[in-house]
Write a structure and sequence with these properties.
Blueprint (H helix, E strand, L loop, with lengths): L4 E2 L2 H13 L3 H18 L4 H6 L6 E2 L3 H13 L1 H9 L13 H20 L3 H8 L2 H4 L7 H17 L3 H17 L2 H17 L9 H17 L1 H23 L11 H15 L11 H12 L8 H18 L6 H8 L32 H21 L6 H18 L3 H24 L10 H11 L7 H57 L1 H17 L6 H17 L19 H10 L7 H5 L1 H54 L7 H18 L1
Parallel strand pairs: 1-2
Helix pairs in contact: 1-2, 1-4, 2-4, 2-6, 6-9, 7-10, 9-10, 9-11, 10-12, 11-12, 12-14, 13-15, 14-16, 15-16, 16-18, 17-18, 18-20, 18-22, 19-20
């Protein structure tokens, strides 16, 4: 048996000083060995193995300060020393290693770095560690398998975790990897990241709402840094959605294949990504097919159940039009929602919470035919039209563009009967007319014709310099700020609710444990009746036969003698099967306690002495048991007879019911019986009349 050596803090500090002063291969290898021991002790999978094979290790770390010192140095200072040893400049990546020994040291270091990240479950600790990982990734490129393993873990961490700080740290590592990767291989990384995003946006709730938006922003930023690869990836994934839409266009009842969160979130991602690109660049050329695809998905089904989904798509189109300054005919899609006949029907009054359009694609059944839902839908439709018109409220042709829509709002106001709808339409029309008057006043002094496109484009820049916001822009900003405020409040409320549920869950768990203890005591009382009877019986027998058997003094003396014998006995540790340290042997007091608890299931000496008395009592008990069995058999036979009589009576009732039904149904089956019934009825009616 070889005892393990404990690594002290002073020893670690001496090794770190040597590595910092002279970063040679020998000193680095010595430090890497200690770092590997730290990581192996932290692995959850090998905890049991470490306890069992503790003596087989050469070194162990027991002090937490030693562990912190080694890990901190490995993350903060050691990567820079490696760069100095490998003669790498800032921003330069490692392509190959000339020295065989240094290659082994580097592999061991990077492998344990990856293991350490995979085995840390505390989010705060993981956030701290990932702060130093971007520079460490510069050494991973020669090791393809380890590199792909680490990249896969970072992408999974970025896609599955809802902690935004942790997502940000993982994204910084991914962006550093993409920056240093060759353009031919970046495409694979982008596809892996997109696949992880697509897989984790199947459902959207207030708990994951911020996470989805954050992932969209992250992927957009990656596309901006690699525009060449972005075009091919965007084209391929938009084509997949187009093929899905085409295949299900002719089928009925397959809305869920198109109307789901994965398709909607993919369109949101590409809407934000493509709208940030100028139209003359490669990725910007996908703008037109993207708009056509969004409109096609919107018109895939006219069902009123998917109004929330249509609102999501209209918001995407408004965002594209605002960022790219492109005209997109969105008002037609809004009119399709406002023309619904549901706004002209009376709805049931409800006190439910407002419907959440931000996290819904379909109307819930509990909200159907409620005034809460359709009031929100009507207001949301008018808000979207105000946001759309605000985009073009500075254009020279804005009055002509709004003319038909103002006429439509007048007709809509006359058709609806509810005062709330009329007031909302009136407020919107007032704001639109104010913006129209502003544009008309600005274009009075214009000397060029509408065909002069260059002058038309400069109209807003030249004439609206002194105007901070048009009336429609003010209304749009108000609507957007209120919507964002509601979303933030709902997210905070969800977080508070989850926090309270966690506390309540702990309290309930503690309460359940107490209840289990109490119920366990009660069940123990019920389940130990036989044991109590046996103990009482033993005590009675002991009182009759031998009163000295349960004398406390004699019992105490016998225990003391046994303990003395145990102390005098010597154990031969060399010949025992146990190979560990003698101090690590099991505690014999615990074994005695276990044996004492099992005394109820064993016979004592008093039981053997009084065996004859028990046999005599046992014969009397057997006779009583035979009488009880005879009574039970007689009771079962009488019970079977009662059941047969009940079944017979039930069968007779059934037959009588079927006979009555047949009599009553003679004239309801058609044919001759029905004709005879009608003729008899006519004859009787004629006789009465005469």
């Amino acid at each position: 048996m070889v005892a393990s050596k404990v690594i002290s803090l002073k020893r670690v500090e001496d090794i770190i000083q040597k590595v910092e002063k002279e970063p040679t291969q020998k000193s680095i290898a010595h430090f890497i060995k200690i770092f590997r021991i730290c990581v192996s002790q932290n692995e959850d999978e090998n905890v049991d193995e470490l306890e069992e094979n503790k003596n087989e290790q050469d070194f162990i770390i027991e002090d937490g300060a030693v562990y912190d010192k080694v890990v901190t140095f490995a993350l903060q200072r050691f990567p820079y020393l490696l760069k100095k040893l490998l003669k790498l400049e800032d921003g330069q990546i490692l392509e190959s290693v000339s020295s065989r020994k240094l290659d082994i040291v580097l592999k061991v270091y990077l492998l344990n770095i990856v293991k350490m990240a995979e085995n840390v479950h505390d989010e705060d600790m993981l956030i701290y560690m990932l702060t130093f990982y971007p520079i460490i990734t510069d050494f991973m490129f020669p090791l393809k398998k380890l590199f792909m393993r680490f990249l896969k873990y970072m992408v999974e961490l970025w896609a599955t975790n809802n902690n935004l700080k942790l997502k940000l740290k993982a994204f910084i590592v991914i962006r550093r990897i993409c920056k240093n990767t060759k353009s031919e291989e970046v495409d694979k990384i982008f596809r892996r990241v997109y696949a992880a995003y697509f897989e984790n946006v199947r459902h959207v709730s207030w708990r994951t709402y911020e996470s989805v938006i954050f992932m969209i922003n992250c992927y957009t930023e990656l596309m901006m840094e690699h525009k060449d690869a972005a075009y091919y990836i965007g084209f391929s994934y938009l084509r997949q959605i187009a093929v899905l839409l085409k295949d299900n266009m002719a089928k009925k009842g397959d809305e869920m294949k198109v109307f789901n969160w994965q398709v909607i979130n993919s369109l949101k991602l590409w809407s934000q990504t493509i709208s940030r690109q100028p139209a003359d660049e490669d990725l910007g050329q996908l703008l037109y097919p993207l708009v056509e695809l969004i409109i096609g998905v919107n018109q895939f089904s006219n069902s009123q159940e998917y109004v929330p989904l249509k609102f999501h798509l209209i918001q995407c189109l408004n965002s594209i039009a605002q960022k790219t300054d492109t005209f997109i005919p969105t008002l037609k899609l809004i009119k399709d929602v406002l023309n619904s006949g549901e706004f002209r029907k009376k709805k049931t009054q409800s006190t439910k919470k407002p419907f959440d359009f931000s996290i819904s694609l379909k109307i819930d059944n509990k909200y159907k035919n409620t005034n809460v839902l359709w009031n929100e839908i009507f207001k949301f439709g008018l808000d979207l039209s105000a946001e759309y018109l605000a985009i073009y409220s500075r254009d020279i042709g804005f009055p002509e563009m709004c003319y038909n829509y103002i006429k439509y709002l007048k007709k809509l106001s006359d058709s609806v009967q509810f005062v709330v709808y009329k007031m909302q339409i009136k407020e919107l029309m007032k704001t639109i007319r104010a913006s129209v008057d502003l544009v008309l006043s600005k274009r009075k002094g214009v000397n060029f014709a509408p065909k002069n496109i260059e002058q038309d484009a400069k109209f807003s820049e030249d004439n609206f310099k002194d105007v901070k916001e048009t009336p429609l822009e003010q209304l749009r900003n108000k609507i957007v700020s209120e919507r964002e405020t509601r979303i933030k409040q709902r997210i905070l409320a969800e977080k508070d609710q989850n926090y309270d549920e966690g506390d309540d869950g702990e309290d309930e768990a503690a309460g359940d444990e107490e209840d289990e203890d109490m119920s366990g005591d009660e069940s123990g009382d019920d389940g130990t009746d036989k044991k109590k009877k046996k103990i009482k019986k033993d005590l009675d027998i002991a009182d009759e036969s031998d009163s000295d058997a349960f004398d406390p003094e004699n019992y105490k003396d016998s225990d003391e003698e046994d303990n003395k014998e145990d102390d005098e006995e010597e154990y031969d540790f060399e010949n025992m099967d146990y190979e560990g340290d003698p101090d690590d042997l099991p505690d014999f007091d615990l074994i005695d306690e276990v044996d004492d608890n099992n005394d109820d299931n064993q016979l004592s000496e008093d039981d053997f002495d009084n065996e004859d008395e028990e046999n005599e009592e046992g014969e009397g008990e057997e006779e009583q048991e035979e009488e009880v069995e005879e009574k039970q058999d007689n009771f079962k036979k009488s019970k079977k007879g009662d059941q047969k009589s009940q079944q017979f009576q039930h069968g007779n009732k059934k037959k009588q019911i079927t006979k009555n039904r047949n009599k009553n149904n003679k004239f309801s089956r058609g044919g001759k019986n029905q004709k005879n019934f009608r003729n008899n009825k006519k004859q009787n009616f004629g006789k009465r009349r005469k």
